[in-house]
Amino acid sequence: MRNKFTTLILITLCLVSCGKKKGMVHLSGDLKGASTSELYLYGQDGSFDYIDTISVRNGHFDCKIHVDTLSAAYLCINNGEYPIFFEKGDHIRIKGDAMKLSTLTVTGNENNEDFTDFKKELQKKGLLEQLNFTGGDMSANLIRPEAEIFITKHSSSLVSLYLLDKYFIHQPSPDYAHIKGIIRNLSAALRETPRVIELSDFITRWEKSKMGTVAPGFTMPDGKGAMVNRSSEGLKNKYILLTFWASWATNRAQSAVEIRQLYRAFHNNPKFAMVGISLDTDKYEWNRAIKQDSLQGTQLCDLNGFNSPIISQYAITGTPAYILIAPDGVILARDMHVDALKRQIAASLK
Question: Could you list the residue range(s) of the whole structural domain that residue 115 is in?
Answer without folding.
Answer: 4-207
